[in-house]
Structure formats: structure tokens, C-alpha cells
Amino acid sequence: MIHYSLSCDNGHAFDGWFSGSADFDSQVQRGLLTCPVCGSASVSKGLMAPPVSTARKQEQRQAALVDRAQREAVEKLRKAVAEIRSNAEDVGERFPEEARRIHYGEAEERGIIGEANLDDVRDLLEEGIEIMPLPVLPDDKN
Predict the structure, then answer these.
(1) Is the CB of residue 42 less than 8 Å from the CB of residue 9?
(2) Three-class DSSP labels, the chain
(3) Is 102 found in the same domain as 62?
(4) Residue 6 class from Cβ within 10 Å (0-12 exposed, 13-18 middle, 19+ buried)?
(5) Is residue 117 part of a domain?
(6) Is 36 left (phi over 0), alpha (psi -120 to 50) or beta?
(7) Between the chain's N and C termini, which has fewer beta carbons within 10 Å?
(8) pLDDT reading at 94 higher than 70
(9) What CA–CA distance (Å, rounded) separates 86 from 20?
(10) Which domain range does residue 27 map to?
């Protein structure tokens, strides 16, 4: 498909799409192409610039793809975090103690979530207790 900027003999500007240059010429010759404003059949092609893919346009397209990929990744993370939260017990500030109790067999094995400071995290990891932080996603704190 070819996009043409068109104008009639009365100065009205409009656009048209054609399967090719010959299609435009054929429609003009047969009187099928008329101005949508005044109905004039005296229609001609205007000056047109071919579509040029500049580095800036390519950067914009790539940025749009990255933005889309980021939105999709954040949405997947959001769903994963929601799934984890829905299947875990929130033990709040008791997280380090409860994680130890589970690890050492003093409490029922189950998924838990909660809060721990950096020192507690280091200690838990040194004890071989597997933990993982849940990501804070955009808009989670809003």
C-alpha cells in the first residue's frame, strides 16, 4: 500500500491509500477519485517525503518495546508475589525466629513471610536457612 497526500483544484488537502502508483493513475483517469470536501474530480498528488527511519525513531521504537517488556515483567512479578503472599503465613517481625524454628524442626514446615533486618538476614543465611526477599514493585508503597 502507498499513502499519498492529495489535493483538489480548489486547494483542499486530503490523504489516500492505493495499492500502487498505477492504481492511483487508473482511479484518476476513470473519475473515481474525488475530493471529499467539494467533490472535485481534478485531484493530484502533493509533495511527499518518503518515510525515513531515523536513529531517533528507532530509539523511540526500542524504548517502547523496552517499556512494554518492563511492564510485562513487573506484572509477572506482581502475580508471583501475590501468589506467594496468598500461600504463606505473615509472621511480621517474628520472621527470623519463626524461620529458625521451622528450619530446626521446632515448628510445622510451611511458607512464611515477614520482616527481617540486615543483620538477621546475614545470620539466617550463615545458619543455612534459605530465605529470599520479596521485591517491592512500583506502586506497592503508594
Answers:
(1) yes
(2) CEEEEEEECCCCEEEEEECCHHHHHHHHHCCCCCCCCCCCCCEEECCCCCCCCCHHHHHHHHHHHHHHHHHHHHHHHHHHHHHHHHCCEEEECCHHHHHHHHHCCCCCCCCEEECCCHHHHHHHHHCCCCCCCCCCCCCCCC
(3) yes
(4) buried
(5) yes
(6) alpha
(7) C
(8) yes
(9) 58
(10) 2-45
Give the chain's mean pLDDT. 88
Alpha carbon of 126 to those of 60, 120, 132: distances in Å? 46, 10, 14
Distance CA 87, CA 100 (A): 19
Domain assignment present for residue 35? The answer is yes
Tell me the pLDDT band of 21, cut-offs 50, 70 and 90: confident
Q: How far apart are CA 94 and CA 115, in angstroms?
A: 7
Examine the domain organization and report whether 73 and 41 are in the same domain: no
User: Which amino acid is residue 127, in one-letter code?
Assistant: E
Q: All 3 cell numbers of residue 59?
A: 530509539
**pLDDT (tens digit, 9 = 90+) per residue, 131-142?**
999 988 777 665
What's the pLDDT tens digit per position in 32-70? 999 999 999 999 987 666 666 677 777 777 777 778 888
Residues in the chain: 142
